[in-house]
Amino acid sequence: MKMKDVRLSEKATQSGALWLLIVTYAAVGFSIYFALGVVAKKGLGLTPLIFVATGLLFVITIFTYFEGSAMLKERGGSSSYARHAFNELVAFVAGWVILLDYLIVIALAVLSVPHYLRPITGDLDGTIWLPAVIAAVVLYITVLNTLDIPARRRPRFLLALAGIDLLTQILVIGIGLFVVMDPESLTRHVELFTSPGVTDVIYAAVLAMLAYAGIEAVSNLAPDLDLNPRQFTRVVTRVVWIVPLLYALMAAVALMAVPVYIGPDGPVTDLGTIYIEAPVLGVVEAFDPGWLSDGLQWIVAIVAAATLIWAANTAMLGVSRHTYTLAVNRQIPSWLGQLGRRYEVPYKAIILCALAVFGLALIGDFEMLAGIYAFGATLALTIAHLSVLKLRRTMPDAERPFKAPLNFSFGGVQRPLTAVIGAVLSSLALVSVLLFHDSARWVGLGWLAVGLIGYVIYRRVIEQISLTRQVTVEARALTRPRVSIDFHNILVPIFGTRIDDDIVSTAGRMAAEGDPEETDAQAVLTLLYLIEIPLARAIKDPLPEEVADEAQRVTKRAREVADEYDGVDVRVEIERVRRKGTGIVFAARRLGVDAIVMGAEPPSPIKGGAKLGGIGDYRPEEIGPVTAYVLKRAPCRVLLTAPRSE
Q1: For residue 595, what are the domain limits?
Q2: Taking the CB of residue 34, how many other CB atoms lie within 10 A of it?
Q3: What's the pTM value of the predicted model, to 2 decimals?
Q4: What's the domain count of the chain?
Q5: Residue 513 is assigned to a structural domain of this protein
Q6: Are residues 409 and 497 in the same domain?
Q7: Which residue stretches of 211-289 are H helix?
Q8: Each residue of 122-171: pLDDT tens digit?
Q9: Domain at 308, CATH number
Q10: Are 566 and 627 in a shared domain?
Q11: How far apart are CA 51 and CA 245, in angstroms?
Q12: What is the pLDDT of residues 262-302, one digit of tens each?
């Protein structure tokens, strides 16, 4: 490599590191605005060390997530890894608890907004304006996501806001180190194993995981980093440690500005009581002189509110993508992930999640919500680490642009020590959540139980498919694009071939897109399966068992696909005919259909077939006799797909 190329590569790496730093802190750093208070309530003077300790788990976890996402080139985090490493059931467990965490993070963000606006609006606590502001923020992010407003995705604006947020936090830390510098106050009321107690430290450490709430979002950056493996490693290892460092420094400044004191019930800090809803605002309120404090309060109020609203909006976007992925993989009912006609977003899921977020925010208990988040996070992280470890064994030759460091050989396979440590620590954290967090234990396990029961009913009873095998819905089945012609009565001949799903999906979209104001009748989709009876047998003779079973199997699968479309009356007909072509035409006349949608039959390898097409530079296609007969005799429009494969 030439010297110039080396310099360009180094420059690209440095710019990639800066970009990753800003975006990573944007995805993760917003949670300091509500995590600091709940952690300080239990961690007291050890809060900075607790953030350092959980920061190590954050770094280890980032290594795992970046390896998995960069290798699979998929978004979805631990759920995606589990799908490839284990099975669909494990992937659902991860995806279901991640959905819970998304809801908790949005609720905490929108709940914090009115409290951070206190320097501008005054104290809204206890007034009707508190739920009004919460409702307004929830409505705002819901509208942005359901209407797919482009403003929510402007990268320059988002990067600018992320940079301002990062600079604001650095400014608070920097000024705090000058105006409230008192290291002794951090240890003044600390007594090992007593104040805080061991249980409190563990409790606080688990809650501190809330500070890294955007870890799933950060992992989704991996497929977008256009770097070679060496650059990838340098960028990731240089950047990720900065996040926990800034958290620890913010916690240190906070405990020096709002120190621990002895209250009626023992050591306490106002960060975990008076300022628990807006701890960073409480920090700058303690600064001196007054003019400095007042100015910083306005800056923090504006930046924190804007950042939290943006974070809630981004998390809601994550909810929409996440529910769509769950629906496509038949882990939740497909109607929840169905995209709108005009705006291709899963509007039903967004609206339902918005209602859930509003309810959670009205609870107003930061500590309880943080504990519930910890349940989902620890379970998802454990699954992620175990999945990456297994993928090292099951997919050892897969390209990995980034590999987690500190590898060792075991069983003839290179294993990342970081993933092993991460799996152990996250599983122990999960156990501590179940032991020490009553609300998190019951709400978390209840959420998981409801999800698993629904999953089993949906997969086994309704869909009658395996709990562990991956079964996907054609993505187009969840998309409802507009068509220029309305068909209200469509006939779909099916033949038991591999393109039947595509044919039924095409017809389903056409029927669902019909304008209901143009007709009083519901759109009808008739699935027609024809059994050709040779002349040597009577038309009503009993069918061989295997023929009857095949007819039931093919029509059942076709109905499953057709049922994905709302507002369509799906009907199934199994007919015995002498010739399939005449059977299709006769059914079309009898039913008075507007169109026939079918797969073009391939020509006979011996007799050839009729010519279709051949316009301009396009060569004519040969089609079989059944298709040719339908095209010639059909009393309505006929829409053909590519010739079907036998």
Answers
A1: 482-641
A2: 28
A3: 0.71
A4: 2
A5: yes
A6: no
A7: 215-219, 229-239, 242-257, 279-285
A8: 888 888 999 999 999 999 999 988 886 655 555 567 778 878 888 999 99
A9: 1.20.1740.10
A10: yes
A11: 8
A12: 888 788 899 888 899 899 999 999 998 889 999 999 999 99
